[in-house]
Amino acid sequence: MKMDGAAWGEQLARHSRVFKPEGPGPFPVALILHGCGGKTPFLEVYAQVAVAAGWAAVVVDSFLPRGVSSLDAKLTVCTGLRVRGPQRAGDVFAMLAWLEGQAWADASRIFLAGWSHGGWTIMDAYALGGRVAAITRVSDARPERLRAVVKGALLVYPYAGYPALTTRHGWGEAPPVWSVLAGKDQVVGWRAPKLALDRLARDGLSVDQMFLPDATHAFDDNKANDPRARYRPDLFEQVQAYFADALRASV
Hints:
Blueprint: H1 5-14, E1 17-19, E2 27-33, H2 42-52, E3 56-60, H3 70-77, H4 85-99, E4 105-115, H5 117-127, H6 132-136, H7 143-149, E5 150-156, H8 166-169, E6 177-182, H9 191-202, E7 207-212, H10 233-250
Parallel strand pairs: 2-3, 2-4, 4-5, 5-6, 6-7
Antiparallel strand pairs: 1-3
Helix pairs in contact: 1-4, 2-10, 4-5
């Protein structure tokens, strides 16, 4: 069943958290997309980084509106059984539509930031191209709107292996991309994301790659429950600064 973008965006927004600088706005907006385990507190630190840089931020919860609990997410989303990147890409378009109705938001200046599964979501939102409305089931999803209003994207240890689309299809026209790859990532690895990013660079996009050789997956999440993750507050601070620089470059 197809959905209207603004209506789905309203459902997503009910479970998401908005952070804003002081004042009435309108503010440029960073949409922050969580990984396959669901919305976790460390992403709110990144939201505060955005606020300090003069941006509003929305930490989007893609799972609770779908009735997906934290346990469900770990058992079914993290294993690829449901809510894959192409389907979740509809959330990006829905939030863009929702923001058009928010007086505090400058819906013409958006930054997308995704961690792991959230990075896959952003990448497939671009790579789907003209198929996006049919695949995401968001009836008014328009790739031209995405390309017009999004001024930059941050991809932190994004999933880019099969069946993710970027390496095979590219994005076409797209904004500058910043990325963080972890050299000791045993969840998504770094080679597949690098192949995808290198494809974008060959296509002429502006792509900046930060490679952290000693970082694991979820190195910035102090509550990660994956035994392969090792929290690194020093690297967390480094990526916060990187995010802030990307936002300032995208105003």
